Amino acid sequence: MSIKVTTEPPEGLQAGLSRTFNTLVNQDFLERVEPYDKWRSLVFSVCFLHSVVQERRKYGPLGFCIPYEFNSADLEASLTFIENHLADTQPPNNQAISWKAIQYMVSEVQYGGRITDNEDREMFNAYVQSWMPMGDLLFMPNYSFNQNIQEFSYHIPDTIDHKMLLEYISTMPPKDRPPIFGLHDNANLTKQ
Q1: CA distance 78 to 87
Q2: Torsion sign across C-alpha atoms 184, 62, 125, 7
Q3: What is the 3-state secondary structure (H, E, C) of 59-103?
């Protein structure tokens, strides 16, 4: 007799973000790099992106042409690069944030290293470019990930407090509609 235990990633953006913010991201993590508000916005954006690509896989060929095994190592590597990059923007280096470098490293190197299909690569690059846009748009108060969704405002909460971030995540809908993943509403019908 034997017992087999498997762990599945949680379903839904709320569950995925909650898992990330309960395991990888804590208050100390949010206070690693100054300015804290910019670091927090980038952390939340990358964690949101990670949860979206995890959820998009459940749509099969509608989500990705080829199934990819994105995992927490991709997320951690992206956050480590961004942490090091933001550290370079502090004195004495005083470099400007290179959005092209951040977008390239996240979309083409960290996650993109697994992507082999050109259409999947274009779609992933579009996610990164819209959720980590050039300039300081990401740092605007309550930056929204998708303004076309009316039921819930998927945005970056304006706080650096870990508990407040978890509270915001807990208000997210437990079941997500396909438009937050860039899919048509009928994607659920096709998936089922």
Answers
A1: 14
A2: positive
A3: HHHHCCCCCCCCCHHHHHHHHHHHHHHHHHCCCCCCCCCCHHHHH
Residue found by looking up tokens 């470019």 in the block: 129
Q: CA-to-CA distance for 153 and 48, rounded, in angstroms?
A: 13
Nearest-angstrom CA–CA distance, 185 and 182: 9
Given a cut of 70, whether residue 8 has pLDDT beyond it is: no
Helix 72-88 vs helix 36-56: crossing angle, to nearest 10: 160
Residues 49-61: tens digit of each pLDDT? 999 999 988 888 8
Q: Could you give the 3-state DSSP secondary structure of residue 144?
A: strand
Q: Which two tokens stand for residue 78?
A: 């992206």
- The per-residue pLDDT for range 114-171, each reduced to its tens digit, is 899 999 999 999 989 988 888 888 888 878 888 777 788 899 998 889 999 999 999 9
Strand partners for 144: 155
Report the top-level CATH class of 13-180.
mainly alpha
Can you give the residue ranges of every domain in the chain? 13-180
